[in-house]
What does this fold into?
Amino acid sequence: MWPFRHIGAKLFSIAAAITLWVMVSGEETVERGLRVPLELQQFPAGLEISGELPTTVDVRVRGGSTALSRMAPGDVVAVLDLRGARPGQRVFSLTPEQVRTPFGVSIVQVTPSAIAMMFEKTMTRRLPVRPSVDGTPAPGYEVGQLEADPSTVEVTGPESAVRRASEAVTEPVVVTGAREKVSEAVTIGLLDPALRITGPQSATVTAAIQAAPLERTLRGRPVHRRNLGATFDAQVQPATVDVMLRGSREALARLDPDAIVAYVDLTDVGAGDYGALPVHVDAPDRVGVTRIAPESVQVRIVRAK
It folds into this structure.
């Protein structure tokens, strides 16, 4: 061996080490509190954590001011080894030795020093998918049969949570103003956050829109003259019409007849005889107008005296 071989590189390394030691030894040591992520390792197969679990812990770190100032998020991580966990409540200690740190940084304290967890067996089960809708169809129509494709999904989670669950739900399909079938692909969700879907996470929901089952006729509704000019007068013949309505039993039972207003629109209509002006009807949202008899009226407009 040649002791003086690569002597330049060796001297440079020694000088660099001495310089670093001088810098570190002369640097102020500081202590700081941090909230760091909690990482679970060696998670046992076939087990689930039941209930809330902290995702972070508080630590106090100590080191040179330069080393601490250079730390990036994720440089300090608390690691919990779950090997050997079994069903039931278990308590795991968390010590400074279980926290990963960069060189030159040490852990003084970890809070909490122990973490309790409840483990349950993993369970998988199929649940029905319950489709849902939002809004109200067009007046005189109602939502009929609802179908979801797929009609069931496979869910996985802690045994107790899976046994409690009765159904999966879908994002609502909007049926506002609809007069015919509505079909849309939407997301499937679970009300319990401890559960997860292990199959398709979307479904096609089809909502049948059908005519409301009941009809009601309001006879002799007066025909109003709407938007008639201030300098005119008008005569309507016939002066009343019959209005046929369709809606649910509840909507028709609660209907106030005065809420059904028949009218002719006389906007920008001058003096003269008009043989067939259409009749319009205002009705509540939950009631549909299926027919007006007669559908048009004669109107004579004269200048007011």
